Fold this sequence. Notes:
Layout: H1 2-16, H2 20-37, H3 42-58, H4 62-75, H5 81-97, H6 101-114, H7 120-132, H8 138-155, H9 158-175
Helix pairs in contact: 1-2, 1-3, 2-3, 3-4, 3-5, 4-5, 5-6, 5-7, 6-7, 7-8, 7-9, 8-9
Amino acid sequence: FEAVQLLASRGYVRMTAGDPAGAVADAREATAMLDRVAPDNVGLAQTIASNEAAALRADGRCPEAITVLERAMARDPERSLTVTLGNLGELAVAQAECGERAAALASMAAAIAGAPPTSRLRANLALAEATIRDADDVAARATSLMLARAIAVRDGDAALLARIDEAERRDYSRVR
């Protein structure tokens, strides 16, 4: 089991170091090994899949990233609400990066609808939704960002507030 964790960690390090192809290889090897030694460890499987999907997106292989995320979600559909909705949000981001904007917005809408109204998950999903929307969709982007900001302020989440500020700065710089 430790070998799985080491491979997964090495894959993550490779991804952050700019080696997405190496990260994908490590993730796939870790997944195959996990299926042999601890097939019921859905949490680690989800983490590995998330890292693999990010590496695939970074490598320009968006359709494969979507497949990996869909497979991870299907692995345990009874997983906790937070994990399921988080995966659905991640799928939406991958769909958007692959140019599937309508599918991305539909996935994100489903994730947001299922999230508790004032949860941090809802704030993060709202921020992700704002990044998916076109600059032309100003009202919807602003609504998503306001929801995320309200929850972040209530929770005192400085990191989330910084991400929202950056998203708003990008919006304002496009308007000028």
